[in-house]
Write a sequence for this structure.
């Protein structure tokens, strides 16, 4: 630490440059890594992992994300409902598509199911979507980097 | 900005007020540290499942073969038995409860052969997953992973079957 005698009052001035350098580097690091896309995730859902689950090169054009919990409830937006009560929500999504001049063929249902939810419930969820003319599905999994 | 005349040599030295900048910088740093969350990457397995099955008498002309994977669950949802086209396949359960489906993958590779490219068996094949109602979903993803492809020596994905569908749901066991 360099001590300057800048004044006659005897005040010691520390060199702040290294600290500011380091702090700005830390800020830059966090700014680059911060992820604001947590709206698509839900803490109740723990995804199964797969070595082939790689992030898509291009974003899905019109994704409709459905979270299926271990207790067989569906989380859509901020609401948690049963699979049987999903119909009106899908109709609403279909209406949104129509307003935008699109059809259900343009939309993809992203199924984020808990790894211990039963397959039958996942199939029930898919069937409910099929009844509302949705036919493109994406089964989401966590990237397995363990091996 | 405050200018001070600190030297006796006649040079004017401008001194910046660092305190407000350091305050803000530390606030920003605390914000980023508090909101920082390591999120693992996610990927999708795409499946296309129209509600209406193709009408009888109008088979898909390119369709070569549908490979049927049957997965049976025990009472707790774990995989108990697996068959490919009615042939029983072995599987290994790891210490972490994950199922190694290498035998299924090897069978799929053998069925597809070495033919690749347009109109090849690999391109026109389809896998149908027929699962018990109570089977844990994680085993479905493990099976989809095994039939979809594998990571090659140079870390590239070697694709196997790309068309995957579900058989109609089975009723709840005992229900």
């Amino acid at each position: 630490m360099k001590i300057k005698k800048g004044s006659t009052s005897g005040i010691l001035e520390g060199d702040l440059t290294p600290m500011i350098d380091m702090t700005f580097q830390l800020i830059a690091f966090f700014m680059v890594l911060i992820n604001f896309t947590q709206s698509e995730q839900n803490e109740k859902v723990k995804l199964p992992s797969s070595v082939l689950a790689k992030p898509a090169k291009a974003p899905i054009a019109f994704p409709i994300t459905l979270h299926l919990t271990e207790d067989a409830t569906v989380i859509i937006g901020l609401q948690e409902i049963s699979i049987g009560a999903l119909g009106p929500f899908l109709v609403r999504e279909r209406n949104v598509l129509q307003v935008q001049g699109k059809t259900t063929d343009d939309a993809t249902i992203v199924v984020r199911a808990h790894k211990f939810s039963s397959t039958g419930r996942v199939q029930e969820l898919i069937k409910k979507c099929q009844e509302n003319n949705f036919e493109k599905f994406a089964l989401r999994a966590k990237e397995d980097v363990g091996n | 900005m405050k200018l001070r005349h600190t030297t006796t040599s006649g040079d004017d030295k401008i001194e910046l007020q660092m305190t407000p900048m350091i305050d803000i910088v530390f606030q920003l740093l605390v914000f980023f540290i508090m909101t920082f969350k390591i999120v693992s990457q996610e990927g999708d397995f795409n499946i296309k499942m129209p509600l209406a099955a193709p009408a009888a008498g109008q088979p898909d002309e390119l369709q070569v073969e549908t490979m049927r994977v049957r997965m049976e669950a025990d009472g707790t949802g774990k995989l108990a038995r697996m068959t490919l086209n009615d042939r029983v396949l072995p599987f290994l359960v790891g210490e972490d409860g994950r199922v190694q489906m290498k035998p299924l993958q090897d069978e799929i590779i053998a069925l597809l052969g070495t033919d690749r490219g347009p109109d090849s068996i690999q391109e026109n094949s389809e896998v149908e997953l027929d699962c018990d109602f109570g089977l844990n979903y994680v085993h479905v993803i493990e099976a989809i992973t095994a039939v979809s492809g594998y990571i090659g020596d140079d870390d590239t994905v070697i694709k196997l079957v790309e068309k995957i569908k579900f058989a109609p749901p089975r009723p709840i066991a005992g229900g």
Remarks:
- The first helix of chain A runs from residue 17 to 33.
- Helices of chain A lie at 17-33, 87-99, 119-131.
- Residues 39 and 77 of chain A are 9 Å apart (CA to CA).
